[in-house]
Structure formats: structure tokens, C-alpha cells
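agent> Task received from the user: take the single chain below, predict its 3D structure, and emit C-alpha cells. No templates, no multimer pairing.
agent> Plan: (1) validate residues, (2) run structure prediction, (3) serialize to C-alpha cells, (4) report one or two observations.
agent> Step 1 OK, no nonstandard residues flagged.
tool_call: predict_structure(input=
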Amino acid sequence: MMLMREFGVEPNAEPVRETVALVQANCRWEHAGQLFFAGEVEPCINGRTVAIGAYFGVAVDDIVSRLLGEQLADGGWNCEAENGSLRSSFHSTICVLEGLLAFERATGGSRDVVTARRRGEEYLLTRRLFRRQSTGAIVDADWLQFSFPTYWHYDVLRGLDYFQATGDLPDPALAETVDLVRSKRRPDGTWSLENTHRGAVHFPLENGDGTPSRWNTLRALRMLAWYDGNR
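)
tool_result: status=success, residues=231
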């Protein structure tokens, strides 16, 4: 369902509505048997579930309320918060931000949702999307490699694609990361698949790491069109 959303499937097409109804009635999380659109306990999972529900017209207000209550003091989210973590995770935060943005688009959102989303954005921006706030060091070199599908994983292209999706004017803190994306453009104008994540493959999308990637190219081009068009 996440892939269907990213590919832009028509959410009101009859086969899609039938699929959504079947998922809504029958799919449950392994955690405690929760119904799919009731969500689970991890913010990264719940953020993605909100994005799916919002796109396909399923009410996910209860999950959104839970996410608002789980935002950490530094502005982001972390799936390890239930185990005592007080610091946010880039992975969890990007999943929640994408979900909240989709929820806003579908429902109009609320002041609380917008405020939480802005705080989450600031968490990423103050770290320039990939650096430690304390030292400026790169948090994880893998985040500089572009993946698709991303599943729950963060990387800087996913972060930039989120900011592009907001439609806001580009923040100056994005400049370094945008330059990184430009530097990775291949001579043929495409971008490569660089870091394939483990996960269920329902049908192959690309030809493997090191080869041109349709989806990385699409996301890079639309991000650059947004960034350059608003400078």
C-alpha cells in the first residue's frame, strides 16, 4: 500500500477501494493483533500508516493524536522512546513528518498538527539533514546513499523530497544537501540506486545498486525543480 501511494494509484478506483476494505477488515499488526488502521506502537510504523490512511481515505485521527503526544523535547520522534530514549531518530522523524503532511493535505489538519510538523522539520534542519547538532559530524554515511524503496529508512534524498512535498520555500539549511544530490548526477542525467534495503519485493523496480534508478531520478529532478525554481 505504501508503494501504491508513492506511485500515485487512483485511490477511488474500484479495485483499490476493494483492497483498502480488505486490509481494513483483515490485516493486523504482529505487535498485539491491532487492526492495521488502528496503528501499532512505534512512531515510524504509525507515521507510515497515517500516510497510507490519509491517502486512501481511512480515518487515522487516533494515530495522529498518539503521535502528537509522543513528540520528544528536541522536536522529533524515536521508536525507542518507549524504552527510555530521549533523543529523536532521523528514521522515525521522517516517517512521522510524511504522515502528518499527508494527513494535513487530506483533512486540513489542525493547529496542533501543523505545530508538531514544524517542530519536526526544525529537528532535521538544525542538523542540515545529516549532521550531528553537537559536532557537525556526519551521523551515518549510509544516509548519503540513495535508496528506493526506502521502507522505514532515512536518507538525505528522502529528506529533501519531503521538504519539496511541503511546497514551502527552501530553507538555507538545505543547501549543502542539495549540492550533494547535484554532485551525484550521472553523465546521462540520471541518478543511481545506491543502497538497496532488505524487505519484501512484490515486483522488481530497478536493476540493482550502481545502475540508473527511475525513482531516485524522479525524486532528485522534482526536488531540484522545486529548489531552483524558488531560489
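agent> Step 4: summary for the user.
The longest helix spans residues 90-107.
agent> Done.
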